[in-house]
Amino acid sequence: MARPKIVSLSEAIGQIQNGDMLTFGGFTVWRRPMAAIYELIRQKKRNLHLVEVNGGTHDDMLVGAGCVEIWESSWSGHELYGKFGGNLARKIEKNEILYEDWAHIHVLNRLTAGAKGLPFLPTYSAMGSDILNPENDNLGKAGLRDGSNPHIGKYKYVIYKEPFTHSEIVLVPAAKPDWCITHVQMAGKEGTVRVEGLKFSDQEVIKASKHNIIIAEQVVPEEYLRREPTQNMLPGYLVDYIVELPWGAHPTGLFGAYEPDGPFINNFFNATRTQEGFDQWAEEWIFGVKDFQEYLSKLGITRLEALRANPSLGYSSTLKRG
Amino acid sequence: MARPKIVSLSEAIGQIQNGDMLTFGGFTVWRRPMAAIYELIRQKKRNLHLVEVNGGTHDDMLVGAGCVEIWESSWSGHELYGKFGGNLARKIEKNEILYEDWAHIHVLNRLTAGAKGLPFLPTYSAMGSDILNPENDNLGKAGLRDGSNPHIGKYKYVIYKEPFTHSEIVLVPAAKPDWCITHVQMAGKEGTVRVEGLKFSDQEVIKASKHNIIIAEQVVPEEYLRREPTQNMLPGYLVDYIVELPWGAHPTGLFGAYEPDGPFINNFFNATRTQEGFDQWAEEWIFGVKDFQEYLSKLGITRLEALRANPSLGYSSTLKRG
Amino acid sequence: MEVKKGNSKIGEFKPIDLLACAAAREVRDGEIVFAGTGLPMLAIMLAQHTQAPTSVCIYESGSIDGRPIDLPTSVADARCSYQAAVAHGLTDVFEQLQSGKVDLAYLGGAEVDLYGNINTTFMGGPTGKRLTGSGGNTDIHSLAKRSVLIMPQINQKRRFVERVSYITSPGWRIPHWPDQEWVPKQEVYGPAFHGGPAAVISDMGVYRFDENGKMYLDTFHPGFTPEDCRDNCCFELNISRVKGETITPTYEELDLLRNTIDPEGIIIK
Amino acid sequence: MEVKKGNSKIGEFKPIDLLACAAAREVRDGEIVFAGTGLPMLAIMLAQHTQAPTSVCIYESGSIDGRPIDLPTSVADARCSYQAAVAHGLTDVFEQLQSGKVDLAYLGGAEVDLYGNINTTFMGGPTGKRLTGSGGNTDIHSLAKRSVLIMPQINQKRRFVERVSYITSPGWRIPHWPDQEWVPKQEVYGPAFHGGPAAVISDMGVYRFDENGKMYLDTFHPGFTPEDCRDNCCFELNISRVKGETITPTYEELDLLRNTIDPEGIIIK
C-alpha cells in the first residue's frame, strides 16, 4: 500500500468511472466536497450510484446534472436554505431516477458494516415505517437485486428473529462504495487526515470505501499532525489521492474556516424548481467557469471573506443571518 | 438524569453489590483503576462477575482475593512484568473459578452491542478455534445459560448463515455490566470526561454499563474541557460517581502522567505463584494500609516520582528499563 | 431592565411564541433531549433557561450538551458545538438513542395521523409530492422515550389525518412487516421499545395520546375553541378530555426568546 | 562511526539477533503490519530501517504508524503513540483487521502445530497448565493476510506438535463447529478469508506452509542441520524442500538492533 498521491482536482476526479458507486464525507450543508462535485459534473460522469448517510446541496447538483442513476440515502435538502432537494424531488416525481429511501441508522449501518468487513449490521430503527414496506423496495422492483450488481444487496433488508432475546430486528446489507470524496481542514504530506469540529460519519464512510479522495483546505507538514495523533481521523494508507483546495467546500460550511453561503444555496434551490432553471444555473456556475479557481474569482473576495469564521468561535460573528 | 456526584472512593465502591457484573476501562497494565480494585478487595466484595475486553494486574488481584465468581475475558497477564495471571491460572487449574474464554473482538462486540442497545453483534473472528468449541462453553456446562441470570446469554454464541452473502458468521450476545470503573486523566465538575492518549475500548465499555464510576487523576473546571469538545470522551450524564485520586492507577501506567511500576507488578506476579504468597502480598499492600493515601505514603515519593512522565513524550525519559 | 412578571395576553405574543413556550414546557429538568433545526432549538434553549436548567441537548450530527451563545441554523452548525461536552459524530449519538438514553425528542412533519405516525417523505404517498425524506426523523421517533411533534395547523387541516399517506416515522400503531398487520408499536419493538409520541403541539392546541395510542385534545390555544381544533383535523378528534386553555407565554419567556435566544430574529421573524 | 558491510559470521550474532532479522525480512515495503510486544517490535522497526521504510505498524491497543524513538515494552506503551498517524482504540484497528487491510502480523505462542494452529491458552488442553489466553492472537491469526510466528525451539521440541492441545488461533486446517469436521480455513471463513500462517521463525530455522497448509522447513540457521530441525519437532517435519542456510544478520542490521532500536537492551539482553 503506497503513500497517497497529491494531485490536481481534475486528475483525481478523472479516476472515477461512469457507473461507480460514490459516497461523500460531511453532513447536509456542512463540509461537502463541492469543488469535486462541480468537477464530476464538468467531466460529465454518468450512471453514478450514490449511497449516503444523508444528502444535501451536493447530491442534488449531481442529480440535476444527470450524473446519477441510483440514489440511496435518508434525506436530501438544504437545511434552512431550501426545503428539499429540488432536482431529486422532480426526478422522483417524474420517474426519472432510481431511488431507495432509508433511515439515518440504516445507511450508517450499511457503511459501517462495509468498514468492518461484515456482511450486515442490525438495528431496531424504523420498524413499522414505509421505509421497510416491501412495496417500497424500488431496486428490488426494478429487478436489480439479482446479484448481478455487487453494490446492490440481495435483499433491501432482512427481518431476523434473533436467538438471544427472540426480538425481531432489521439486518441491512453492507455497502462498499468504489469512492468516497471528503473535504477536510488538514491533510499531511503522507496522507494523515485531520478533521476539526464534528466528524459526522466520515470515519465510517471513508473506511467502507475502496478508494478515497481527500480534498484538504490545507496540506500541512506530516510531523505537525503527528504531534497529536489522538486528534487525527485517518492514517495515510487509507487515502489514494489528496487535493489541496482552499474554499473547496463552498457553498457548504467548514468548521473553523467558513460558514455555508446561505443565499448562494437558496438561489440554487430556487433554480432547481425546473430542469431549465437548474441548467441555466449550471451553465453560469459550473460550465461557465473553467475550473474551481475561476469559480472563486467569480464569487469574489468580498463574498468569500464575509463567510470567514472567527477562530475563537469556529463560526462567523459578523455574518448577517436574521 | 442528574449530574454525577463527586464522592470519596469508599463511598463510590460502597454502591457496588456482591454478585454485580463489573468491567473496567484501560488495557492490560495501562490506565487501570487500581485504587478502586484495592477498595473492592478491602470492602470484601464477593461473587463478582467480570466481563472484560482484556484483563491484567487488576483482575488477577480481584481473583486472588476471592472477589470473583465468574471471569469472562480474552486475556490475563502483566505484559513483560509477569507471564500470566497467576491467581487466575491457579484457580482455573484447581477448578476454583468459573471462566469463559473469548477473542478480543468477541468481548469488544459483546460490550459494543450493549452500548448500542443491540442483542448481539457479528464477527468472523476465531472461527475454528477452541474458544468456540461447544465443549468449552463453561457457563453452559455449569447450567448457567437457563435465562435465570440476565448477565449470562442463552447461548455463548450462535453461528448464523447470513442471507446476504451466505457466509457463516459468529453472533455474540450483548453484555451490559452493572458497573464500569475507569481511571482517566481529567473529569469536569459536571462530569465531562477526557482521556489523553489511547482510548482503548473505554467508550464502548462505559456506554455498555448501567452505572459508571470515573476515577479522575484530576478534577478540572468544566469550562476548560468544553473548550475542545472533540477531545472529550463522554458527557456527564453517563457518569454516576466521580472520585478525584492522583496516582490512582498505580502500579499500572497513565499516559502523560506516569509509567507502569514494573518491579511492583513483577513482585506481585511472583507472589501469586501460591495463594499464600498472594495473601501475604495483600496483607502488606491492601489490608495493611488504611486507604489509598496510606498506600501512596508506603510507596514513597521517590518511587512514585521515578515513574513520572516527561510531558514532551508522554512517558519517562529517565526510567531504567533495560 | 426589569422584566414584567406573569403571563402575557392575546396580542402580546405571536403564534410562534406560544408554540415555542408550549414545546419548552414538555422538558423535565435533567432530561436528555434530541432536537432538530428551527423551533425545537428555541424550545430546548428556552427550557434550559427556565424549568430545566440541567437538561441536555443532543443534535443528531453529534454535538452533546452544547451551550450556544448564538442560535444555530442547522444541527451541524458550528454554533451547536460551542462549549459542548462532546462533539464526535452520528454513531455516538444514534447508539445512545437506540440504547434508550434519550428521554425526549422534538420532531416535525408534513403529516401526522391519529396514532402519531409522521410523514416527511411523500405528500400523497410514493406517487405524490416528494419531500426531504426521513433524515433522523424515523430513527428518533422509533427510539426516543417521548417525542413531541411541532406542526402548523391553521389552514393546514390536511396535515392532521386519519392515516398518513406514507409512514416515515412509526407512531403508536404501525404495520408489522412483511405481513402488514397493524399492531401496537410495543409488539413490533420488543426489548427496543422505549416509548412513542407524547404530544403534538400546533398553532391551535396541544394534543396528547390516550391508552390506545389515539390523539386527543389536551389544551386549546387562546382565541380558539376545542371545536376549532377538531374541525381542523381530517379525523374525528377526541375533545372530551380537554383540560382548558393553553397557558400563554410569560413575559420572562417572551423576553428570553427575543433578547437572549433569538435576538437576530432568525426563527422568530 | 563506519559500520562494516556484509553478513556477520557465527559467534558475531546472538540467536535473538537472527530471529529478529529473519522476522524483519518477511515485511515488504508499504505493507500494513500488526505487531505485538517483544521480538515483533524489533522486527518491524528493523524492517522499517531497512527494506520496508514505508511499511506501517499497527498495535492492537489502537496506535497506527507510530515512530517510537524509544523501544516500547507493551502495545499500549505511550512510546507506541509517539509521532503516530492515529491513536484511537481497539474498534478502529480491529475493524481494519477484519476488513482485510492487514498484510502481515507477528504472533507468538506456547505451541504451534503442523497446520499453523497456535495455542496460547492451555498447555495440555483445558485440564492442563493455564496460560494468558488469546488476547488478540486469535483475532489477528484469523483475519490477517499473512502471519509470522516467532517461537523458541531449541530444547523446546514440545512446542512443535502434530496438533496443538488447544486451538487458540486457527491455522490452515481447522474444525468446523459444531460438527467438528476438519476442513481448510477458507471453507470456514468464506468472504472473510484473507490468508493464514505464512512462516514460523524459530531459533533453529525458518518454516513455511505448502499447498495443503502443512509446515515444511525452508531454511535452517547456521550451526544446525535440517535433521536437527526435524528432530526438534514432535511431528514428521518435511525437510525435502529446504533451500539452504538462513542468511545471517548483516553488520548493519546488528548495529541498528543494538544502537538504534534497542540500545537499552530491553529485548536484546
Question: What descriptors fit this protein?
Answer:
A: 322 residues, alpha/beta, three-stranded antiparallel sheet, 19% strand, C: 269 residues, eight-stranded mixed sheet, 7 helices
SSE map:
The complex is a heterotetramer, with 2 copies of chain A (322 residues) and 2 copies of chain C (269 residues).
Chain A: E1 5-6, H1 9-13, E2 21-24, H2 34-42, E3 48-51, H3 57-64, E4 68-73, H4 86-93, E5 98-101, H5 104-116, E6 120-123, H6 138-141, E7 158-161, E8 168-173, E9 179-188, E10 193-194, H7 202-208, E11 211-220, H8 222-226, E12 241-244, H9 262-271, H10 275-287, H11 292-299, H12 301-305
Parallel strand pairs in A: 1-12, 2-3, 2-9, 3-4, 4-5, 9-11, 11-12
Antiparallel strand pairs in A: 6-8, 7-8, 9-10
Helix pairs in contact in A: 2-3, 3-4, 5-7
Chain C: H1 15-24, E1 32-34, H2 39-49, E2 56-58, E3 63-64, E4 86-87, H3 90-98, E5 104-107, E6 111-113, E7 118-119, E8 122-123, E9 129-130, H4 137-143, E10 146-151, E11 160-161, E12 173-176, E13 181-184, H5 185-189, E14 196-202, E15 205-209, E16 215-220, H6 226-231, E17 244-245, H7 251-261
Helix pairs in contact in C: 1-2, 2-7
Terminal Cα span of chain A: 50 Å
Report the structural category of chain A.
Answer: alpha/beta
Which oligomeric form is depicted? heterotetramer
Number of strands of chain C: 17
Q: What's the tally of helices of chain C?
A: 7
What does this 3D model show about the protein?
With 322 residues, chain A is α/β, with parallel strands linked by helices. Chain A has 12 helices and 12 strands. In chain A, the strands form 2 sheets. In chain A, strands 1, 2, 3, 4, 5, 9, 10, 11 and 12 form a 9-stranded mixed beta sheet that branches. A 3-stranded antiparallel beta sheet of chain A has the order 6-8-7, with helices on one face. Chain A is globular, with a radius of gyration of 19 Å. Chain A starts with a strand and ends in a 17-residue tail after the last helix. The mean pLDDT of chain A is 97. Chain C is an alpha/beta fold. In chain C, 22% of the residues lie in helices and 22% in strands. Chain C contains 7 helices and 17 strands. Chain C has helices spanning 15-24, 39-49, 90-98, 137-143, 185-189, 226-231, 251-261; strands spanning 32-34, 56-58, 63-64, 86-87, 104-107, 111-113, 118-119, 122-123, 129-130, 146-151, 160-161, 173-176, 181-184, 196-202, 205-209, 215-220, 244-245. In chain C, the strands form 5 sheets. Chain C has an 8-stranded mixed beta sheet with strand order 2-1-5-10-14-15-16-17, sandwiched between helices. Chain C has a 3-stranded mixed beta sheet with strand order 7-6-11, with no helix packed on it. A two-stranded antiparallel sheet of chain C has the order 3-4. In chain C, strand 6 and strand 7 (118-119) form a beta hairpin. The chains are: A alpha/beta (322), C alpha/beta (269). Chains in contact: A-B, A-C, A-D, B-C, B-D. Chains A and C meet through helix 4, helix 5 and helix 7 of A and helix 3, strand 9, helix 4, strand 12 and helix 5 of C.
